[in-house]
């Protein structure tokens, strides 16, 4: 299962680093993503647009490559061909199932966009193949109900609102369209489903400075993220927020700048407290208190240990960086199979500043659990709690 060529996290000798997740164990979670979820996604994208024969042929090729073939390089016309070779030259010619899961999954999305003409000059350039699914998310009775619920929260004490909005942002991470292609359980989240809760420590780090929020999914995750940011700005808990989004469509529902605009419009158009929050956020964007950034690193197949210098400096200068979601968590701990009781601070000691993870558990990796919690989870569910999306965590470090 380990990928021997992967470098160790900073400061760790290669031989002692926990193995990186790969997808070659039939029936394992990462295997199911490559063998089942990716083909289902290709089918879904095919049906969502009136693509032409060239796009269908390219999707056929991708489907064959990623399920039965080997990793092929990007075409010679791709501007980032050399960049991807630098990130994984040694993966070319190998089965997608034998290379690190983080790399193969990320490359799948890059190839999918190439297949539908997202990057090539022409009529399909910049057309997000996932946009219909993301927009549909915003236009549901559940979304209306969630926004209306804000009116009940508004008269409550600020601290109570803050905790509720933090949990809204956390559990919003279940609203992930890629995940729903699998067999997600939809039971109601409760506090007992928090396997680690550093919520108080997180809130103690909000000291009136800059918050970097690395967003995950658009739609019904981004809306509560934005509501949390609004609350923190409005109550002086932070003076500035930087929202980091993806530079291009990724992992189905990940938020881009266009999705952020859609979410802000949805808020602005809402009635009551949600509309007020939307209008405050709009004003905060205008006066620079809310900034959106779409750094290429966020679509790179790299762990956070390999942060580029500009982001490293930015996160070091912030009061706190909040990483949303499962993929950010995987990248934070290098997608390595640490023992679950490894302290969060140990696995994240490479991070340049204070970092918090808000994540529902949707993949095998996890750290920072106490031994009793892990034992109880295993006794109740064997290892299903790791991937079912029914449990969540708030962790702060390093
Ligand atoms: O949107 P999130 O929370 O980052 O989740 C991404 C999902 O995709 C995966 O990478 C698998 O496709 C899992 O880690 C997770 O289920």
UniProtKB/TrEMBL annotation:
Stretches assigned to the Damage-control phosphatase ARMT1-like metal-binding domain: 35-374
Catalytic activity, reaction form: beta-D-fructose 1-phosphate + H2O = D-fructose + phosphate; beta-D-fructose 6-phosphate = dihydroxyacetone + D-glyceraldehyde 3-phosphate
Lineage top rank: taxon: Bacteria
Transmembrane stretches, start-end: none
Keywords: Hydrolase, Manganese, Metal-binding
Essential cofactor(s): Mn(2+)
Family: Belongs to the damage-control phosphatase family. Sugar phosphate phosphatase III subfamily.
Protein name as it appears in the record: Damage-control phosphatase ARMT1 family protein
């Amino acid at each position: 299962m380990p990928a021997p060529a992967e470098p160790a996290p900073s400061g760790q000798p290669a031989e002692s680093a926990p193995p990186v997740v790969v997808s070659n164990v039939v029936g394992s979670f990462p295997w199911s993503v490559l063998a089942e979820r990716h083909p289902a996604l290709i089918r879904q994208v095919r049906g969502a647009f009136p693509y032409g024969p060239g796009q269908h042929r390219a999707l056929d090729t991708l489907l064959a490559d990623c399920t039965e073939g080997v990793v092929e390089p990007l075409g010679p016309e791709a501007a980032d061909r050399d960049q991807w070779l630098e990130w994984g030259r040694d993966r070319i010619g190998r089965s997608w199932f034998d290379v690190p899961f983080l790399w193969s999954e990320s490359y799948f999305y890059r190839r999918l966009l190439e297949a539908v003409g997202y990057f090539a000059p022409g009529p399909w350039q910049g057309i997000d193949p996932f946009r219909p699914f993301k927009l549909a998310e915003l236009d549901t009775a559940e979304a209306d109900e969630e926004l209306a619920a804000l009116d009940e929260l508004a008269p409550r004490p600020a601290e109570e609102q803050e905790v509720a909005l933090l949990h809204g942002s956390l559990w919003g991470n279940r609203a992930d369209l890629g995940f729903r292609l699998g067999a997600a359980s939809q039971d109601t989240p409760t506090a007992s489903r928090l396997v680690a809760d550093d919520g108080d420590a997180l809130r103690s780090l909000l000291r009136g400075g800059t918050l970097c929020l690395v967003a995950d999914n658009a739609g019904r995750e981004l809306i509560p993220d934005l509501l949390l940011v609004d609350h923190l700005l409005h109550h002086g808990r932070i003076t500035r927020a930087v929202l980091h989004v993806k530079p291009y469509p990724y992992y189905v529902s990940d938020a881009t700048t266009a999705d952020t605009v859609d979410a802000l419009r949805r808020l602005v158009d809402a009635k009551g407290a949600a509309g007020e929050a939307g209008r405050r956020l709009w004003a905060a964007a205008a006066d620079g208190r809310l900034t959106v950034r779409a750094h290429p690193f966020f679509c790179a197949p790299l762990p956070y240990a390999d942060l580029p210098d500009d982001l490293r400096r930015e996160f070091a200068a912030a009061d706190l960086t909040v990483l949303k979601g499962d993929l950010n968590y995987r990248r934070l701990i290098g997608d390595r199979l640490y023992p679950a009781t490894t302290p969060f601070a140990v696995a994240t000691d490479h991070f340049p500043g204070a970092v918090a993870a808000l994540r529902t558990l949707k993949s095998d990796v996890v750290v920072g659990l106490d031994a009793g919690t892990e034992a109880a989870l295993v006794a109740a569910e064997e290892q299903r709690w790791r991937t079912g999306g029914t449990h969540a965590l708030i962790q702060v470090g390093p």
